[in-house]
Design brief:
The protein is built from 17 helices and eleven strands. The chain is α+β, with helices and mostly antiparallel strands. One of its GO terms (molecular function) is protein-lysine N-methyltransferase activity. Residues 37-292 form the SET domain.
Length: 441
Amino acid sequence: MEEEDESLEKLLKWAAEMGITDSTIQNHSRSRNCLGHSLTVSHFPEAGGRGLAAARDLTKGELILRVPKTALFTTECLLKSDQKLSLAVNRHLFLSPSQILIVCLLYEVGKGKSSWWYTYLMLLPRCYEILATFGPFEKQALQVDDAIWAAEKAVSKAESEWKQAIKLMEELKLKPQLLSFKAWLWASATVSSRTMHISWDEAGCLCPVGDLFNYAAPGEGEESNIGIEDVEGWMPAPCLPKGDTTDVLDSEKFNAHLHRLTDGRFEEDVNSYCFYARNNYKRGEQVLLSYGTYTNLELLEHYGFLLNENPNDKVFISLEPGMYSCCSWPRESQYVDQNGKPSFSLLSALRLWMTPVNQRRSVGHLAYSGHQLSVDNEISVMKWLSNNCLGMLNSLPTSKEEDALLLCAIDKIQDIYTAMELKKVLSDFGGEVCTFLENYD
C-alpha cells in the first residue's frame, strides 16, 4: 500500500509538471500536485475502490479537471516521438487503430524507466477482469447463454487480434513476456477500459488522472430535477473509448452515435481534455463519471466490473419463431428492463401475437402505437411473459438465493488467513465454491 501511495504521489507530481490541473483558473501556476483545488484522490471500498473525491463543494456543470493534449497517451504522439515505432507501424497499416494503440502501449512498457510515460504506466492496474480474460470456469459461471457466448466471442476476438499483431511486435523486438497472449490481454484491457474519445483517432486516448474517475450509470445518482438524455449508439469494436459530454456541449456539433461520455470532451480552443461535474457534490463525496449507457454484461465485457443496481440493465427475451413474423421489431429490442418492465417493442409484438391472425391487420396500428388491445389480450401477454421468465430462471444451474450465499462466502474468504478457517466457512457451501477452489488450487 505504501508503495502504491508513493507511485500515486509521483504520478500527481508528474501530472502537475505536464500541466494537468483541477484548478478552475485558466492560467493557474503549476504546483507540485495537480489536484487539491477541486478534486482529491480517495478510497471508496464499497464504490469502486480508489477514485476521486470533491476537495470542495462542486456545482453541476463546472470545470473540475483539465488535461492538456501533450499529456494524452495517443498513437499520434507516440509515432511522432519514436521513428523506429513509426516506421514499423507504417508497414502494418492493415491493423485496426486499437491494435496499433495496444502495440504502442506494450512498446512503451518495454522501455521501462527510459519511457517518458513510465510514471503513468507504473500506476496502471496489473490485471483486469473483462470478458476476454475469462477462463472456462468463469465463462460457465455466467450461466446465461447470451453471456457465455459473449465471453467466448471476446476471448476468440482477442486471440485473433493478437495473432494479427504479433509480427509487428516481433519487428519491434519486444521482450518475450510482452509478446505473450497474457501481455496482449492486459494491454487490450487497458485500452478497452481506460481510453477516452478523441476526434482524430478511433482508438481513443489514455488520459492520465482523468482515468481515476469511477463510473456512474446514467440515471444513477442524478438529482430528481435533472433530466437524463437518452443517447444511443457507441464506438465500434474492438475499442470502446469513453465518448463526449451531453450536458455541456452543443448537440448539433457532435454525433450522438460516436460520443457517449456525458461528463467530458476534448476542447480544441484550450487544446485539452476537460471534465465537468455531472452533479452537485459536497466536499468528500465521490465524483463519478458516466462512460455511457450499458447493461451489466457490456460493463463486464469492456470495463471489467458490474453494478449491483444498474438502472440500464436488461434481460433479452427469446420469442418463438412465429412471433417474429408478425412484427418488424428487431430482436435486440425485445427485453425486460431492470425494474421488470417489458420494452415497448416486446409488448407490441406479444399483443399482436396473442391476437387472432384474421384480426391482426385491423389492430396492428394500435399495437404499434403502444395501446392495449383488450383486457383479455393483456392478461394473455402478461401470463406468457411470467411463464417465460419463470422458465428462464428455473433453467439456470443456481437460484438467486444460492448466488447470494456464494457472494457472501466469497466476501468471508477474502478475510480468511488459515486453511482451518477456510474449511469452516466453506463447510456450509458446495457447488460453485468448491469448483472455484479446485480451478484455482
